[in-house]
Amino acid sequence: MDQCGDTQEGDPPSKNTLCGEDESQSKAQRNQPGPGDEPSCVSFRSDRSKYLGIFFKDNSSGVEQVDQQSSETPSGPSVQQHQTQLDSIFLLLEDNIVTFVKTELKKIQKILSQKDEDEEQRSSRESLMKITENFLRRMKQEELADRLQSRSSGVVCQYKVQSGLKKKFQCVFEGISKAGNPTLLNEIYTELYITEGGTGELNEEHEVRQIEAASRKADRAETSIRQEELFQLTAGRQEPIRTVMTKGVAGIGKTVLTQKFTLDWAEGKVNQNIHFIFPFTFRELNVLKEEKFSLVELVHHFFPETKEAGICSFEDFQIIFIFDGLDESRLPLDFHKTQILNDPRKSTSVRDLLTNLIRGNLLPSARLWITTRPAAANQIPAECVDMVTEVRGFNDPQKEEYFRKRFKEKKQASGIISHIKSSRSLHIMCHIPVFCWITATVLEDLLKSREGGELPKSLTEMFIHFLVVQAKVKKVKYDGGAETDPHWSPESRKMMESLGKLAFERLQKGNLIFYESDLTECGIDIRAASVYSGVFTQIFREERGLYQDKVFCFIHLSFQEFLAALHVHLTFITSGVNLMEEEQKTPNQFYQSAVNKALQSPNGHLDLFLRFLLGLSLQTNQRLLQGLLTQSGSNLQTNQETVQYIKEKISENLSAEKSINLFHCLNELNDGSLVEEIQQFLSSGRLSTEKLSPAQWSALVFILLSSEEDLEVFDLKKYSASEEALLRLLPVIKASNKAILSGCKLSERSCAALSSVLSSQSSSLTDLDLSNNNLQDSGVKLLSSGLQSPHCELETLSLSGCLITEEGCASLASALNSNPSRLRELDLSYNHPGEDGVKRLLAQREDPQWRLDTVKAEPAGIQWLIPGLRKYSCRLTIDTNTVNRNLKLSDNNRKVTFEEKLQSYSDHPDRFDVCHQLLCRDGLTGRCYWEVEWTDLVYISVSYRGISRKGDSHDCMFGWNSQSWSLICSRVRGYSVCHNNNEIYISSSLSSSSSPYSPSSTFRVAVYVDCPAGTLSFFKVSSDSLIHIYTFNTTFTEPLYPGFGFRFLTCSSVALC
What we know:
Largest sheet: 7 strands, mixed
Helix content: 40-55%
Distance between the termini: 100 Å
Number of helices: 35
């Protein structure tokens, strides 16, 4: 590289020149007259080209010419002038070299202090390093010289490793490997949603269930982290992070995440304190199962640049090892019997090498990142993992970002996003990046090939279209056909039959990765299989020229299940053979037996398979596969009988997950009648949970879980304030961020159920309000077993008014000692914990992991150990200065009756002059409960003191303004509630009696207000039990005054109980 460049007079000195330190001196030299007839202004470029030949021999003609000119230079004054000029140049040269050496020595010092090196002037720096190393050895500084030698080799090696990784990871093949057109990773990459927390425990649920659980969590306020932050210390964490485990279902983006992490490092964007990142996959390591390596040899094997650099020790480097795909490992990792190995140069089996590396016996300074599907996470002991993260795939904004990147036309992208949102199944599956790719591939093809028309709404439709797209690709790209030609040839049909057989047989065995022998068993030609690149992922072990072994897998587990279902369907309609059972079946029995088989699977492993099998039974879907299916299967009657059978199964006592999958099956069969029925009830406000059948309860759960509205707050009283409703709606509670279960007559049975929710891996619950339930100490003890679970994420717990004593506090304290890192707020007010009970809860405050910073224990005392809301009873007193003159007081001002005749009350500014209303005297600020008896038509209300008293506008009328809230009680219409001019009709049922009501019939209601909590509840009182009518949830900004109102009916009355 030219060190002086083309610097012209007047330009600032260049950093890359040999002559740039003193600008004035440079100018002077440039303006000196040259000898003979040379130009008066000579650039240093020409000076250098003229004089360098004197000192450096070269065979080029240019240098020979300089030598010749020099020898012919006349003697005398011109020689002296020439010498003076040469002396001046070399003074400058000396200054530049000294400055360069000083600068480079500082950089070398930084390298020895483990700092990053600048890439500029790399070759010059490497040469100078060798000189420095030589001088250090002359100075007997052998240790520093060795370190410099290692580091200098490391710098060169790092550059080469980064270059290789950039080349390897800068392009990706979406969804598939070695097929289609490569895409720049940085262009297509969409940020994934990664959360911190959880454990490496086994989760055997079908991954679609896990995806559905994740879909309900994806938009919540969880602790999300970016991939470049994986090894950074977060607030509250003191120990450094050595090993990170990242979990995620198949196709969620774990591998691409590791590639992006590595590429960003290789391109110098992030993690520049790291000297080397060495990414491995377990698929690569499986091939070395029988061989022996030392850790150094293993790195040399996969990254030969390190061997070329002579690096035989990695202790002085900051290193990250990435091990992708633990679930695909065929290396039996034994963390109990493996021999301890500390020497990275000692050979052993690859499995023992990995075990010692993960244990921290080998290279404890290195950092490890392991990715896995959830089912394999427990292969590594929890004590070997410092942080567990989970890749949730795309949240809703990230899905949109992906499709907007894929479809550049805004209108088209918006239409596709709207379509996906309209189908719950598609929307859930699009949390998986590879499914987004499948969806984009299908919709892109459909939008090209036709205008308008229906887009696929179900999973089965989407996968059928994807299969057809790939058949078209094969026909056009490989067979030279036209897009209008039939897609399915005899050869392609045979190939699909073989792939389906492979998918089904290996699915039954739980195999998701296949080898050549598996393909041969199913009659698959490997070369032909590779042609079906869109359906089949082919991963060759020849990326570095090391292996010839081939490993195969489907692009996603769901596609393997689809092909397996297609194989079972094809076999049955062509030969009548039911591959799932030995007995021959009619079409009805075939599908019903498939339903039964799926329901028998404890972990839902056949859930998605069943959806596809039933979806393939629809004639509309069979028409899409025309050419592959040579004859149709079931008819409309068979489909209707299958729908009815599924509805009967939903009516049985199934787990929530199984019921939900059966609703997805009904969607695949285009039947939404159960869901529509419940949706109509919900929208009309006529949902009476007391009359719901089991199937309707299941439909309600499905609707609530499938709702696009966030389950931020779930209030059980909206549906039924009962223990039965809680047990029925438990899956919804588990999916909610906050559950309000206060005053719902819950018992020990509910506590046991809620404990299972708290200890569930898929629970989203962070805020639980159980106040005013008679849980007692026994219930709290059951609840505490969930609180101590490592999966419990509860941050706020209210047990106010739950009849808890010191014994219950002891259970809570024990649970929090086991799991102190989550709960932040605990409300035990209106209980009787005693001094010792509170002390136990606060005893661990010095523990650095302790997060409980708010414990509310007042008011407290034995008087609060009264069951139910009556412990908050308060005695109301009517404010006679507010009573309208049409209202008559009696029974020591405890009863109010509407009268046409005006009463002789004195004038007072607080009196309601037109509206037939009154207020009580004392404002309420805490928890209060009262009961009243009423007849005919009355308003039972609470109001701020400032409500208007003059006239009959809405500003004066209880419930019809922002100052007041009312329960409207009517012998004819039943109950409704009203606030701020908004009336909500509740029920026509006034009591459990079915006999007709006379104008003189009396009814009793109860009112409970918790001013600090912002809740106002109304109840029917029947035989001393409370039946919930409605609860307002708001924020009260002033004291509340109870009030009563009447509407021109002479029989109307209210009596304070």
